[in-house]
Amino acid sequence: MAAAADLIVTGSVIRTADRENPVVEAFAVRDGQILAVGSAAEIASLRGAKTRVLEVGDAAVYPGFVDVHNHHALAGRTELFELSLPPSLTLDEILERVREKAAGLPQDAWIIGGVVATTLLPALANTATRLRLDEAAGGRPVVIAEDSRHNRWANSRALELAGITAGSIPSSGVTVLDPVDGTPTGVLLEAAGIQVQKAHDRSGRLTREQHVAASRRGVELLNSYGITTFQDAAASIEILDALATLDRTDDLHAWVVSSLLINDEIFGSDPIGEPLIARGEEFRTAHHRPDFVKIFLDGVPPARTASFLDPYPADAVHGAHFHGETTMTFDELFGWLRSVAERGLGAKVHCTGDGSARLVLDAAEKLRAEGFTTPIQIAHGQFLAEADIPRLHALDVSADISPFIWYPGVIPQALAEVLGQRAEHSQPNRALLDSGALVAGGSDWPVSESPNTLEGLQGLVTRADPLGRAPGTLWPEQAITAEEALEVFTINAAIAMGLGAETGSLAPGKSADFVVLARDAIAGPAEAIVHTEVVSTWFAGRKVYSR
């Protein structure tokens, strides 16, 4: 006789994300794993005297959502220890928030936070606005991240402590100067902001306990949206340690794959590259897997730091033939991919232009020719040359997509201002799926305001803003079905991060990770998906969130 289940779940709709058995009536759980799926009658035979039964009735059960790209610790840190600013704030509103924060701080305390909208950066890039920030902070150093998290806005005291002046500007990135007086405005693009970050760190980093608290809070927030598996897209030594610490005390309520930083154009982490990779295995635990590296191959289009095959529209600074640049040559990129493949690690490569994506695919082609099968993800990949779309499937390269940051809103508006009509043809998800590519969903939270997977699902189907904040649709011909979208944010994402055998679908032998929704979100009108409530979230057969 088969061993009795610890838990039996029954409901009118249980979606498994398993194409061989897509909808079932019930499943059984034992020792944190799926024991069996099937009809209510079949599963009832596994009920014992101590079996708990969860009857969800007209609610729906889905596999726990999987987020292939977020920065959970950064989100947790912002909520717990920094000044949190929604990107919708105007300049005056931001200054008022800074003023309120400063009122309760010592005179030499830093004010760290975010975000300011990408579209606001031009208005910030002048001496007068920097002086307004100085006044609001009462002379305290301030640095605020822009919504892509690639760029920063700093005030005069922060620039002073970082040693940034008109005669001494960072050698990397772009320090935007005032066109009239030639002094740094405080707008720092890409790696130029690292010097300010390091000045802040010299004044006092977060403690180990605070890093653990930040990761714990980040995971709690993800659980509240039904997410039970995620890939941290840029893990520092502190994040690795925090995740391992949580798991060793049974406080990590998610599967986590970490991406160890090879290069760092925005965060100021130390160590990175070889020294960080060498320590990765110290932090491997049952549910935390330091199995990927992260390479920033370019920046972001609004700052003209993304690499494109065709030039950007002409402007006074860059001229008429500027394509953007990659952070590595082909040989450098291939060298890193080969090196990590030899270690058995995968690679997540940040590419926001089609030029950087082409470089990854070319390097992947050479790597595959040498027999390496290491996982490779093109992160973001919102712009892909038509000829490159079938290459992802052919070369077994996954598309890590973030619908949260491309459906109509602030970032697409910023893209349109820089790229013109080219911005209307981003995220070719229908073409990717039709070509056979593995498309995996990520939130890029807190670059996106929320990690709510339901927003991502709806955006993939409607190509419109799920929250109705912006009108219109973005390249609606690239819409995918609701069923496909669910796979993108469950089994596809799990496979992309190397956890397809452990989670991502409700199938025997897999971890019992699932979310109970108030209704079958993908069965009704696509415009209503986001309005579905998460009732409870379960990880390894244990409830980790309830409304």
Low-confidence spans: pLDDT under 50, at least 5 residues? none
Characterize the biggest β-sheet: 8 strands, mixed
Q: Give the overall average pLDDT.
A: 96
Percentage of β-strand residues? 15-25%
Number of helices: 18
**β-strand number:** 22
Query: Structural class, from secondary structure content?
Result: alpha/beta
End-to-end span in angstroms?
37 Å
Shape: globular
Provide the helix percentage. Answer: 25-40%
C-alpha-based Rg, rounded? 23 Å
Characteristic terms for this protein:
alpha/beta; 547 residues
Concise account of the structure shown:
The chain is of the alpha/beta class. The protein has helices at 40-44, 72-81, 91-103, 121-124, 127-137, 156-162, 194-202, 208-224, 237-248, 274-279, 330-342, 354-369, 389-394, 410-419, 429-434, 453-462, 482-488, 491-496; strands at residues 7-15, 23-30, 33-38, 52-55, 60-63, 65-70, 83-84, 111-116, 142-146, 151-154, 174-177, 184-189, 227-235, 255-261, 288-296, 346-351, 376-380, 397-401, 439-441, 514-517, 534-539, 542-546. The strands form 3 sheets. Strands 1, 2, 3, 4, 5, 20, 21 and 22 form an 8-stranded mixed beta sheet that branches. An 8-stranded parallel beta sheet has the order 6-13-14-15-16-17-18-19. A 6-stranded mixed beta sheet has the order 7-8-9-10-12-11, sandwiched between helices.
If you had to describe this structure to a student in words, what would you say it looks like?
This protein has 547 residues and is an alpha/beta fold. Helix content is 31%, strand content 22%. The chain contains 18 helices and 22 strands. The strands form three sheets. Strands 1, 2, 3, 4, 5, 20, 21 and 22 form an eight-stranded mixed sheet that branches. Strands 6-13-14-15-16-17-18-19 form an eight-stranded parallel sheet. A hairpin with a 7-residue loop joins strand 1 (7-15) and strand 2 (23-30). Helix 2 (72-81) packs across helix 8 (208-224), helix 8 (208-224) crosses helix 9 and helix 16 packs across helix 17.
